[in-house]
Structures are given as structure tokens and as C-alpha cells.
Design goal:
By secondary structure, this protein is of the alpha/beta class. Helices cover 37% and strands 37% of the residues.
Length: 214
């Protein structure tokens, strides 16, 4: 009986330890709990989105009240959608168009219930979100959706204050501009990484030559 009690105590301690570890791991991300992705008139997917804090990239301003950001790769499994023309798509990155700056649109707060690693957790940084997918970009074989943020804390606060925020209307020109700005940013980052690599290789080669002289 005593052995059974000790075994149970060890099992409980193990479960608690795993839960604490998973909670600490999940806390590193910004989370949109039960975020709704509306892909078309009939398809809505609800999923927890875990975003590494260093992957929120400002792309640029598309127009008044239209600020584009590229998010991802998400830490959660890929999100899937059966596109009528493109077939089955799975993605872990997306371009979001916000009505205001990131910190003015989203207000992360503790208390949201999420699933991480198959375990239910209460997360310290969660926000509500509804996205309308307005277009797709084919980037090096990867399909990246361009989405309008249709509901957030920004929208709710304006509504409660009696302010009716102007409904965002993404045009095809807006979507093309967002994709173009994102592509330019990717090219700039790749060029900077290439320069850093060239500089590093140059130093290594110089050190190698100096050693040969010695």
C-alpha cells in the first residue's frame, strides 16, 4: 500500500512538473485564443494561434487605417484550408492588415484558456481575433494569406465608446501592395544576411592566411 502511495505521489509530481514546463514554454508566445479565420462564405476555422514575439514584422502602410504586418512562422501546427482553385493549402505565416498600429489594435491580457502540446493551459498573453482572408500570395511555393483584421479589442473599445470605426475595405491594389512590400522586406533581409555571411567568411579567410604566414 505504501509503495502504491509513493508511486501515486511520484506520478502526480511528474504531471505537475510537465504542466508547469508546458505553461512556461507557452508563455513565451503571444496568443490569439480561439481566433476565427473566415476563408469564404462557408468556411470558418477556429484555432489558437501562437506567435513568437520576434516574428511580428511591420510591412508598411497601405492607406489610411490600413497597416500591414507579416506574422510567423506560427509555433502551432500549420493551418489548413481547401481552396476551390489551389487545392489543399497549409500555412504557418500570414499578412494581416490592421486598422491601427499593432499595440493600438491588440491588448494582450492574462486569463485566456488555450491548448499547448495537448494540454489545456491558462495563458498570460491572450487576445481575441477575427480575420477575413482576402487574398493569397504564392511565395517560393508557400501560400501566404492576406487577411483583414475584422474584430479585435480595438474594434470593441471603439464600439463601447460610441465610435463607429470606419469599416476597412481591402482592394486588390491594397493586397498587391502588401505582397510587394513583404517581398521587398524579404529581399532586404536576405541581402543583409548575405553581407553578414560574406563579412564572416572574409574574416575566417584572413585569419587562415595569417596562420599560413606564421
Amino acid at each position: 500500500m505504501m509503495i502504491l502511495g509513493v508511486g501515486m505521489a511520484v506520478w502526480i509530481a511528474g504531471v505537475y512538473g510537465v504542466h508547469a514546463h508546458m505553461k512556461m514554454e507557452a508563455a513565451e508566445y503571444l496568443v490569439f485564443d480561439q481566433a476565427k479565420w473566415r476563408f469564404d462564405e462557408n468556411t470558418v476555422t477556429t484555432v489558437d494561434i501562437f506567435i513568437p514575439k520576434d516574428t511580428v514584422q511591420y510591412i508598411g502602410k497601405l492607406g489610411e487605417g490600413k497597416l500591414a504586418y507579416r506574422l510567423g512562422p506560427f509555433a502551432n501546427p500549420p493551418i489548413g484550408y481547401l481552396h476551390p482553385d489551389l487545392g489543399l493549402i497549409s500555412f504557418r505565416r500570414a499578412d494581416w492588415v490592421l486598422p491601427a498600429k499593432w499595440n493600438d489594435t491588440f491588448f494582450f491580457k492574462p486569463g485566456g484558456e488555450v491548448w499547448w502540446g495537448g494540454i489545456p493551459l491558462v495563458h498570460p498573453n491572450t487576445e481575441g481575433l477575427v480575420l477575413h482572408v482576402k487574398g493569397w500570395e504564392d511565395y517560393m511555393g508557400e501560400h501566404i494569406p492576406t487577411c483583414e483584421v475584422a474584430d479585435s479589442t480595438f474594434h470593441y473599445k471603439h464600439s463601447m465608446a460610441g465610435i463607429n470605426p470606419k469599416r476597412m475595405s481591402l482592394t486588390s491594389e491594397d493586397i498587391e501592395k502588401s505582397q510587394s512590400l513583404a517581398y521587398k522586406r524579404e529581399c532586404i533581409e536576405l541581402r543583409l544576411k548575405t553581407k553578414d555571411l560574406e563579412h564572416h567568411l572574409g574574416k575566417v579567410l584572413d585569419e587562415s592566411v595569417d596562420q599560413e604566414k606564421i
